[in-house]
Design a protein that fits this description.
The chain is of the alpha/beta class. Helix content is 30%, strand content 21%. It has 9 helices and 9 strands. The chain binds S-adenosylmethionine.
């Protein structure tokens, strides 16, 4: 096992605990998720309508949902995660449903067990907030994605991690500086922050710039809509009327450095 930073070890233990507590993010795929599996996870059709036969890495995606859904859609799935207990849920659901998938316990910034170009697709649900150095993660993802392959990732939006929204009138206060280092102050568990974990804010230049610098071209970006018009004041849906919580990014692995020079010259 390569050296893991104290934050990463801390988060591995925190996620093991969340898995034991069966929090919503540690809920395996349900019957309904497996009927039209791809529509559950790719509502925008970024994966071109089929992943059958593709080598697909579900990165930091333990918990029994993503791996099972992509395996049911016919992909050759590997789930990599830092938490042994989240991965145990993937193995359990795969055994129960007769699905084939592999699990690998590792940190997202160390994919050394995979040779370059191993995967056609990397799916990365919200989780870059759990590492301090997101650039290292993107360069590892770029190395294991084949040229022309897809990297679909979702991240907590930096402004959402900075902001406090006053429930009474929606006044937004940016209580965390944008330029900051170290983990964010602990918060009461809620849909935006997971109990016991250490989370880091990454700026846009680190997220979007980092993905580009690692060797990808960004093809699309959306902010999945969680705002609810008639949401109760102070609820997640109410907060999301003022600040979008997440960003989802579609990026394609560049084929060669010469290609990159050409794009930069445009
Ligand atoms: C929000 S959950 C994502 C998967 C979840 N089942 C879902 O439905 O979205 C975040 C995952 O990131 C994992 N994680 C946290 N830090 C990690 C790291 N450094 N490397 C790999 N995985 C990590 C956690 O163990 C957890 O399974």
């Amino acid at each position: 096992m390569h050296d893991r930073s104290p934050e990463i070890l801390h988060n591995a233990r925190a996620w093991d605990k969340l898995a034991r507590q069966q929090v919503p993010l540690a809920q395996p795929a349900k019957d309904a998720d497996l009927v039209e599996p791809l529509s559950q996870v790719d509502p925008l059709g970024w994966l071109g309508g089929s992943v059958r036969g593709l080598r697909l890495l579900c990165l930091a995606a333990g918990g029994g949902r993503h791996g099972a859904i992509y395996a049911a859609a016919g992909a050759q799935v590997t789930v990599a995660d830092i938490s042994g207990e989240m991965l145990a849920l993937d193995r359990a659901v795969a055994a129960e449903r007769g699905l084939a998938l592999q699990t690998v316990e590792t940190s997202m910034d160390n994919l050394a067990m995979f040779p370059a170009g191993t995967f056609d697709v990397v799916i990365h649900p919200v989780s870059t907030c759990y590492v301090a150095d997101v650039g290292k993660v993107f360069s590892e993802v770029a190395r294991v994605t084949r040229p022309g392959g897809l990297y679909v990732s979702q991240h907590k939006s930096p402004v959402s991690l900075q902001a406090e929204v006053r429930a009474s009138d929606g006044t937004v206060r940016l209580r965390e500086p944008y330029y900051r280092s170290g983990p964010l102050p602990a918060e009461a568990p809620c849909r935006l922050r997971e109990a016991g974990t250490l989370e880091f804010l990454h700026r846009w230049e680190q997220l979007l710039g980092g993905i580009c610098r690692a060797g990808f071209v960004i093809e699309d970006l959306v902010e999945p809509r969680h705002a609810e018009a008639d949401a109760e004041f102070g609820s997640f849906g109410h907060r999301a009327q003022f600040v979008a919580p997440y960003v989802r990014i579609k990026a394609r692995r560049r084929s060669s450095e010469s290609n990159f020079s050409f794009l930069c010259a445009q």
